[in-house]
Amino acid sequence: MNKLPTKSQLRRQLQQQVDSYLKQGGEIQQIPRGISGRENACASLPTVFFNQPKAERTPVPEVLAALDCRRPKKPSPHRTTRVRPKETIIYDDFGEPIRRIWQDK
Q1: What does the pLDDT read at residue 12?
Q2: How far from 38 is each of 27, 44, 46, 49, CA to CA, in Å?
């Protein structure tokens, strides 16, 4: 398995490619900021994904029914709720807690 090149290696490789391009007589044009590469920058972008007619789908209900029959049936979840005891505090005549008792509902 090959190691991925590091960012510094990629930077160095890209700089070597630019230098060799310039040595061969190529030149780099500086484009001012804000200028688009499109011919008409004011026009909206073309939608290329929806220019074809809608494709017809092939109905396959019998195949889906066969797959559903082979799938094992899941048992219905049967949950029982436990009756939990409720804590009750017994107070004296002055409102001070005396003790706690647990009562079933």
Answers
A1: 96
A2: 21, 10, 11, 19
Do the beta carbons of residue 60 and residue 71 sit within 8 Å?
Answer: no
Count of beta carbons in the 10 Å neighbourhood of residue 15: 10
Coil, helix or strand at residue 45: coil
The token pair at 5 is: 């090149």
Going through the chain in order, the beta strands assigned E by DSSP cover 86-91, 97-103
Does the pTM of the predicted model rise above 0.70?
Answer: no
pLDDT value, residue 29: 87
Using alpha carbons only, how large is the chain's radius of gyration in Å? 38
Q: Which candidate, 102, 104, 72, places its Cα nearest to that of 87?
A: 102
Question: Could you give the CA distance from residue 30 to residue 8 in angstroms, rounded to a whole number?
Answer: 24
Q: Kindly give the pairing relationship between strand 86-91 and strand 97-103.
A: antiparallel
If one compares 62 and 49, the residue with the highest pLDDT of the two is 62
Interatomic CA distance for residues 27 and 21, integer angstroms: 8
